[in-house]
Amino acid sequence: MNSTAMSDSQEVGERGEAASTLITWVRWAQEGDVKAFEEVVRRTTGFARKTAFPLLRPHQVDDAVQEAFLTVYQKLHHLQKPEAFQGWLARIVIHVCYAMRKKAPLIADSQEVSMPDSTAGLAMRLDLRAALDQLKEDDRNVLIMRSFLKLSYEEIAYATRLPVGTVRSKLHYSRKRLKALMT
Fold first, then answer.
1. Domains observed in the chain
2. Would you say the pTM of this structure is higher than 0.90?
């Protein structure tokens, strides 16, 4: 085994052992490490699906997530703070969802509503989606990021490019408005 092959395998081993956080994987992916990007996708796919689910029909979620990760791959080098990756990813997924909704609006068709296994849960999800649709886009984004994705105020502020105080205010008023729409 030559010294180059040995140093390459040592580096991979060290990276594998040291990579205990998503931030580390994101940094390596920004450096062009394809395996690191694959690991970032593996670790955040559930989060991306959770982001898309309140905004789309269930059969559209995987397409939105795939498209979002293509955008992430193309623009990862623009991310200045790897520790803000989840907020950045959430913003990308949300924008992809809005673009998909413009192409095919989220109006429940007769097949979806008249299914015999409709339950109170389905009705509530449809009511929630309808209520979310009535919120302003910025308010809806903040609400989804905090309530559904459990992002911190700082992560939301970075993702939305708003001050933390504005994020808190928008969240407060979005919750009040959503509650009023749901009752």
1. 22-107+115-182 (1.10.1740.10)
2. no
